[in-house]
Amino acid sequence: MAEEVDEETPIFAIAAAAELSGMHPQTLRQYDRLGLVVPGRTQGGSRRYSLRHVKQLREVAALSAEGMSLPAISRLLELENENRALRRRIAQLEVRVREELEQRSRVFAAGASGSVVSVRHGTRVRRATEVVLWRPEADDAF
């Protein structure tokens, strides 16, 4: 079974990333200094590029060849990164909402003694003869 490759894992040294992106290693160093494509670093300080970085480098090369300025490319990459982060956050929140809705699908009723009773969804509950109404007294108010 093939495992899915994580695009974010920094695995390529600068020479490999330069070759994969079709650029000179010095260009990658310059882009790093400009904050255009910033790779991860090893404990020793060596640059390590991920598959996403290589894709970004290819995109930078294509946009630059079309005449887009480096500041404009930088802004575009910044917006793409923000978009990716927001999409991840949306996916996380959707999972939380689904979990919350699953939790809320339970139905509760008041038992004859006033206790809370879990009831299967769609089940009718017999009416109790007592109703307890609680109102805060003036002393209980915050």
**Low-pLDDT windows of residues:** 129-133
By DSSP, the count of extended strands is 4
User: What is the succession of H and E elements?
Assistant: HHEEHHEE
CATH fold description of the domain at 14-104: Multidrug-efflux Transporter Regulator, Chain: A, Domain 2
Instruction: Give me the side-by-side strand order of the main sheet.
Output: 1-2
Top CATH class of the domain at 14-104: Mainly Alpha
Main sheet: strands, sense, barrel: 2 strands, antiparallel
Tally of DSSP helical segments? 4
* Class derived from helix and strand content: mainly alpha
Distance between the termini: 61 Å
CATH-defined architecture of the domain at 14-104: Orthogonal Bundle
- Proportion of residues in β-strands: 5-15%
Helix proportion range: 40-55%
**Overall pLDDT confidence:** 83
User: What shape does the CA trace take?
Assistant: elongated
> How large, in whole angstroms, is the Cα Rg?
29 Å
Q: What is the fold's blueprint, element by element?
A:
Blueprint: H1 14-21, H2 25-34, E1 40-41, E2 47-48, H3 51-65, H4 70-104, E3 107-110, E4 116-119
Antiparallel strand pairs: 1-2, 3-4
Helix pairs in contact: 1-2, 1-3
Summarize the entry for a quick read:
It is built from four helices and four strands.
Please give a structural write-up.
The protein is mainly α and 142 residues long. The protein has a domain at 14-104: Orthogonal Bundle (Multidrug-efflux Transporter Regulator, Chain: A, Domain 2). Strands 1-2 form a two-stranded antiparallel ribbon. Residues 129-133 have low confidence and may be disordered. The protein is elongated, with a radius of gyration of 29 Å. The protein contains four helices and four strands. The protein has helices at 14-21, 25-34, 51-65, 70-104, and strands spanning 40-41, 47-48, 107-110, 116-119.
